[in-house]
């Protein structure tokens, strides 16, 4: 879940102004009532993750929830759940989130941790500038800054930096087909995603690649509760 599932789910970037939330997503985003399920697995090892994300709201607020269950062979289990809230205005969104992380070894130790997120998003015309700080209570705080450019309904591009890595990517939509890409520097990694979207449903397949490392795969199914996906500009 730390990097693979989050990287796959959020090819639009963790600080994207819209979209279902995930482990590394910002709570400060605009509501697009929907829900989705995803499943990830790794090549060559028995490690996988089931994920459920949902959100609702309107032009004034957004509420979201995210749950992920991860298993690795018979050695390790992890259940992470998160709730997020955002207050939104035409040019500003402020959000916070709380996550509960439960990890255990089957037949062995069990431990829990608490996580918090605080985030802000400012937009002017087609530019969205965002920042987020987050962290577990037993660890230090991490931060990420980013900018998203929404050129029109067909192209979205972004750049985000967490002061360890730089992520850049773009999404291209043509009618009901969407192609997403995301790149990480340094320690180069790349992910690609192919999606098919209708008026209410979407399905996609994503794959991540990293030099001298095993790859991951992800399948996503989502449903929008409004007549169409939210358009931002």
Termini separation comes to 31 Å
Q: Class by helix and strand content?
A: mainly beta
Q: What Rg is obtained from the alpha carbons, in whole angstroms?
A: 17 Å
Q: What overall geometry do the principal axes of the alpha carbons give?
A: globular
Beta-strand content estimate: over 45%
Low-confidence stretches: 1-5
How can the largest sheet be summarized? 14 strands, antiparallel, barrel
Count of runs of 4 or more consecutive helical residues: 1
Strand order in the largest sheet: 1-2-3-4-5-6-7-8-9-10-11-12-13-14
Q: Helicity, in percent?
A: under 10%
Averaging pLDDT over every residue, what do you get? Answer: 89
Secondary-structure element string? HEEEEEEEEEEEEEE
Keywords:
single chain, 233 residues, mainly beta, 14-stranded antiparallel barrel, 1 helix, 14 strands
Care to describe what's here?
A hairpin with a 4-residue loop joins strand 9 (about 155-160) and strand 10 (about 165-175). The longest helix is centred in the first third of the chain and has 6 residues, at about 5-10. This protein has one helix and 14 strands. The chain is globular. The protein has a 14-stranded antiparallel barrel with strand order 1-2-3-4-5-6-7-8-9-10-11-12-13-14. The protein starts with a helix and ends in a 9-residue tail after the last strand. It is an all-beta fold. It has one helix spanning about 5-10; strands spanning about 35-40, 45-55, 60-70, 75-90, 90-105, 110-125, 125-135, 140-150, 155-160, 165-175, 175-185, 190-195, 200-210, 215-225. About 5% of the residues lie in helices and about 65% in strands.
């Amino acid at each position: 879940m730390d990097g693979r599932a989050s990287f796959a789910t959020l090819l639009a970037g963790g600080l994207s102004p819209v979209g279902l939330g995930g482990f590394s997503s910002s709570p400060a985003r605009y509501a697009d009532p929907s829900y989705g399920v995803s499943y990830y697995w790794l090549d060559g090892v028995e490690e996988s993750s089931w994920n459920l994300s949902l959100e609702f709201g309107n032009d004034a607020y957004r509420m979201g929830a995210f749950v992920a269950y991860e298993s690795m062979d018979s050695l390790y289990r992890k259940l992470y759940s998160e709730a997020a809230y955002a207050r939104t205005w035409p040019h500003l969104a402020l959000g916070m989130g709380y996550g509960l992380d439960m990890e255990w070894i089957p037949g062995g130790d069990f431990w829990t941790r608490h996580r918090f997120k605080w985030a802000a998003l400012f937009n002017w015309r087609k530019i969205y500038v965002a920042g987020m700080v987050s962290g577990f209570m037993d660890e230090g705080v991490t931060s990420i800054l980013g900018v998203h450019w929404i050129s029109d309904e067909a192209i979205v591009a972004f750049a985000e930096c967490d002061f360890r890595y730089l992520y850049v990517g773009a999404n291209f939509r043509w009618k009901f087909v969407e192609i997403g890409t995301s790149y990480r520097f340094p320690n180069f990694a790349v992910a690609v995603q192919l999606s098919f979207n209708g008026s209410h449903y979407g399905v996609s397949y994503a794959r991540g690649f990293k030099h001298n490392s095993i790859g991951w795969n992800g399948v996503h199914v989502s449903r929008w509760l409004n007549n169409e996906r939210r358009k931002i500009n």
